[in-house]
Structures are given as structure tokens and as C-alpha cells.
Automatic annotation (TrEMBL):
<feature type="domain" description="Aminotransferase class I/classII large">
    <location>
        <begin position="42"/>
        <end position="405"/>
    </location>
</feature>
<feature type="binding site">
    <location>
        <position position="377"/>
    </location>
    <ligand>
        <name>substrate</name>
    </ligand>
</feature>
<comment type="similarity">
    <text>Belongs to the class-II pyridoxal-phosphate-dependent aminotransferase family. BioF subfamily.</text>
</comment>
<dbReference type="InterPro" id="IPR015424">
    <property type="entry name" value="PyrdxlP-dep_Trfase"/>
</dbReference>
<keyword id="KW-0808">Transferase</keyword>
<feature type="binding site">
    <location>
        <begin position="110"/>
        <end position="111"/>
    </location>
    <ligand>
        <name>pyridoxal 5'-phosphate</name>
    </ligand>
</feature>
<comment type="subunit">
    <text>Homodimer.</text>
</comment>
<feature type="binding site">
    <location>
        <position position="209"/>
    </location>
    <ligand>
        <name>pyridoxal 5'-phosphate</name>
    </ligand>
</feature>
<feature type="binding site">
    <location>
        <position position="241"/>
    </location>
    <ligand>
        <name>pyridoxal 5'-phosphate</name>
    </ligand>
</feature>
<dbReference type="InterPro" id="IPR004839">
    <property type="entry name" value="Aminotransferase_I/II_large"/>
</dbReference>
<keyword id="KW-0093">Biotin biosynthesis</keyword>
<dbReference type="InterPro" id="IPR015422">
    <property type="entry name" value="PyrdxlP-dep_Trfase_small"/>
</dbReference>
<feature type="binding site">
    <location>
        <position position="181"/>
    </location>
    <ligand>
        <name>pyridoxal 5'-phosphate</name>
    </ligand>
</feature>
<keyword id="KW-0012">Acyltransferase</keyword>
<dbReference type="InterPro" id="IPR022834">
    <property type="entry name" value="AONS_Proteobacteria"/>
</dbReference>
<dbReference type="InterPro" id="IPR004723">
    <property type="entry name" value="AONS_Archaea/Proteobacteria"/>
</dbReference>
<feature type="modified residue" description="N6-(pyridoxal phosphate)lysine">
    <location>
        <position position="244"/>
    </location>
</feature>
Length: 416
């Protein structure tokens, strides 16, 4: 007899619990920031994507509140019906101007953007060439599109080139994260873009974790180039989110006129979905102005990243970047330069789920919130603590985390 849905799901949940894969949400009280209260406990938050500290910026919050007083709480409809407000249009213009691209288009979330864009652009006769560690939304967009998929070893531009060379006769789209969300390393964008150009492939970069932080704020594709070969040409499709460094919510794609107009006609996650509240767009506009004006936020963040990495080295905490590459590229062609890891995402790969969970719990006891990331989010055997640094942290907090990590990570290793 078929079990009831409830009985079936209860068994599945028990199995997750048994494999240490059960995940819990904890409600944060008050503002999302560095000092947070979560599940009634005060702690220092080291697992936020609010890289510039703008989610707790009073000016950004006030811009949102003022816009809500003028435009109400909801957009009321999808963009193509009556949900596209002046505040959305202004933000799109502001984003296009900032990036020096002809147009930008808002989506309600980064997940919706990636799924909708890939599904709109690619079809059954086409091929998507994708990094093995691309974000789930890029993977799901590729699945939904029905295109053939060729996955190359993580950050391996030679492997990407080979996959592009072998792709079928339809359109080819090379898709990659810029900063990988669970590893914090950078895709070798110049080499990938060169391979795509050689093979006549279109390019799409998801800069969710680079926009606002890298390239003086303009993102991974605008990183200052020391040599012609390290200059990144603009991808055909540039996606970034507004819920991370911008401190608001939502996402956008930037590109040429035809791309944006086509997506307005064809991206189902935009057409059949309510537009974000105009007040959210107003908050993103304010966040974008702040991130342009406040270079000090990026300078401070990069100081903290360097301090954290130096501290790990001094304390013998293994931030061995080659561990992160275990499941990844061939040693000859992967991108192991130290600057590849200078991003706010600094994971400590511990291996087993139990180790990662034990270390995360021990850190919480000491007042530091660092999430344990386990499969299927990361490959089997590479469970990790994912430390993220933000401009809202200070040196003392980073030093405190380092001391706690030195104890907790070792403790986790001894327990195992
Ligand atoms: N792309 C990447 C690389 C991400 O890490 C995320 C979310 N963490 C998304 C897309 C999805 O963005 P959003 O949270 O706005 O849905």
C-alpha cells in the first residue's frame, strides 16, 4: 500500500536526520548585521552575504521606508501588467550606467534570474558548457531549458575549451559563477572568455558574490587588469544580485538592448511573477549609491580578509586552498594563484559532516555564528565551515573568531 504523504515524508526526514543532513532555520531577532540575536542567543555573525554591511545601513533602510510610504508595500502585479514602477526603471538605469552596459533588467531574485534567463536563451538543439561547481540556479536553468549540458572540471579553462570544441552544432553558452559561493575562489574569467570567443560561444557570468566587492565595486568582470591577457571582456549576459553587497533584495541582468528586450518577452520567471515591491528597488538604489561612494568599505573588507588568512596561517588553521581544489581541476590548468582566494568567502574544509557540525556548534557556544555546509550543497567528503567576512566586522572580531577557530577546529579533528 502506498504510504500517506505525511508518513512518506516523515521517513525521509528521519533518514536525513540519521545522516546528519537535517538542516535547521533559526530566526534572527532584529536587524541582520554583525551582532545578531539568533534563537535567543547573542553572537557575532560570520555567515552573512551582506559583504559591505549595507543591509543594516540606516540610510538604506530609510530610503526603503520613505519609498514604502510613497509607493505602498507591494508592486501589485508582474512587470508586464502594472507592476513595473518608476523606482524599478530608475534602478535599472542606475545599474546600466554604473556598469557601462546599454541596459539592465530586474528580477525578483538571483535564482529566478538565472533560471529564467537560461531557459529563455537556450533550447533543445543547444549546448550549455558549465563549471562543475556552478550555483544551483544555473544548474536548474540549464535543466529547464532542455539544452545538452557539458560540465567541465572546476575553474579549468582548458577543460572548458575542450567541451566547447566538442559541443554540437546549435548555439553554445558558457556559464560560470565569478566567485564560487561555497569555495570563495574566482573563475579564470580571462581564459574562459578567450575560449568562448575562439569557439564562437555566448557567455554568461553570475557575479552574485563579486558585484559591489571586486573591481572597485563593479564586479569580477571589471577587476583592474595588470596585463592585456588578464582583462575580462564583458560577458554577453552579466547577472548579479541585490541582496548581498547591495544590502537589499532581488537581482539584475545587464547586457545589450536586444538581450534585455528578448528577456522581457521570453523570461518566464519575470513574465509570470509579481514584480518586487518598489520600496525594495529604492533600497537597492540607495545601496548602490553607497557602494559607489564608500570605497572604504571595500578597503576595510580586504584588510580583514588578509588578516583572517594571515591569522589562519599563524595559528596553523588549515585554509589549504588546494584542499578546496580536491574535486576540481587538473593541477596544470586550474587557477591556484593566491589572489584567486581573496574574496569574502573563506571556507575551512573539514571533510566529514560530523566534523563540520561539531565545529559549528562549538563556535556558537563561544558566540560565533559560522554555518556548516554539507552535501549536497558541496561534494561528498568536503563538508566545511564557511566563514564570510564583511565590512561591518572589525579586526577584534576577526581575531576573536581566529582564536575560537583554533580551538574548535582542532577539537573537531580530535573527536573524529
Ligand atoms: N547565484 C549565486 C552564485 C548565489 O550564491 C546565489 C544565492 N546565494 C544566487 C545566485 C541566488 O540569488 P538570490 O539569493 O537573489 O536568489
Amino acid at each position: 500500500m502506498t504510504p500517506s504523504l505525511g508518513a512518506h515524508l516523515a521517513r525521509e526526514l528521519a533518514a536525513l536526520e540519521g545522516r546528519q543532513r537535517y538542516r535547521h532555520r533559526h530566526a534572527v531577532t532584529g536587524v541582520h548585521g554583525v551582532r545578531i540575536k539568533i534563537g535567543g542567543r547573542r553572537c557575532i555573525n560570520f555567515c552573512s552575504n551582506d559583504y559591505l554591511g549595507l543591509a543594516a545601513d540606516p540610510g538604506v533602510a530609510e530610503a526603503m521606508a520613505a519609498a514604502a510610504r510613497q509607493t505602498g508595500s507591494g508592486s501589485g502585479a508582474s512587470q508586464l501588467i502594472s507592476g513595473h514602477n518608476r523606482a524599478h526603471a530608475e534602478l535599472e538605469e542606475q545599474l546600466a550606467d554604473y556598469l557601462g552596459r546599454p541596459r539592465a533588467l530586474l528580477f525578483a531574485t538571483g535564482f529566478a534570474a538565472n533560471v529564467g534567463i537560461i531557459d529563455a536563451l537556450m533550447g533543445k538543439a543547444d549546448t550549455i558548457v558549465a563549471d562543475a561547481l556552478n550555483h544551483a540556479s544555473l544548474i536548474d536553468g540549464a535543466r529547464l531549458s532542455g539544452a545538452a549540458k557539458r560540465v567541465y572540471a572546476h575553474a579549468d579553462s582548458a577543460a572548458a575549451d575542450a567541451q566547447l570544441a566538442e559541443a554540437g552544432s546549435g548555439h553554445r553558452l558558457l556559464v560560470t559563477d565569478s566567485v564560487f559561493s561555497m569555495d570563495g575562489d574566482l573563475a579564470p574569467l580571462p581564459a574562459l572568455m578567450a575560449a568562448a570567443a575562439r569557439r564562437d560561444a555566448w557567455t554568461m557570468v553570475d557575479d552574485a558574490h563579486g558585484f559591489g566587492v571586486l573591481g572597485g565595486g563593479r564586479g569580477a568582470c571589471a577587476a583592474p587588469s595588470r596585463s592585456p591577457e588578464s582583462r575580462v571582456p564583458s560577458p554577453d549576459v552579466y547577472v548579479a544580485t541585490l541582496g548581498k553587497s547591495v544590502g537589499a533584495a532581488g537581482a539584475f541582468v545587464a547586457g545589450d538592448e536586444a538581450l534585455i528586450e528578448y528577456l522581457i518577452q521570453r523570461a518566464r520567471t519575470l513574465i509570470f511573477s509579481t514584480a518586487p515591491p518598489p520600496a525594495v528597488a529604492a533600497a537597492a538604489s540607495a545601496g548602490l549609491r553607497r557602494l559607489q561612494a564608500d570605497q572604504w568599505r571595500r578597503d576595510h573588507l580586504f584588510d580583514l580578509i588578509a588578516r583572517f588568512r594571515r591569522g589562519c596561517e599563524q595559528l596553523g588553521i588549515v585554509l589549504d586552498d588546494s584542499i578546496r581544489d580536491l574535486a576540481h581541476a587538473s593541477p596544470e590548468t586550474r587557477n591556484p594563484k593566491p589572489e584567486t582566494f581573496l574574496t569574502p568567502i573563506q571556507p575551512l574544509v573539514l571533510g566529514s559532516d560530523a566534523d563540520a557540525l561539531a565545529a559549528s556548534r562549538a563556535l556558537l557556544e563561544r558566540g560565533y555564528l559560522v554555518s556548516a555546509i554539507r552535501p549536497p550543497t558541496v561534494p561528498e567528503g568536503t563538508a566545511r565551515l564557511r566563514v564570510t567576512l564583511t565590512a561591518a566586522h572589525d579586526a577584534e572580531q576577526v581575531d576573536g573568531l581566529l582564536t575560537a577557530l583554533a580551538d574548535c577546529v582542532r577539537r573537531a579533528e580530535t573527536v573524529a
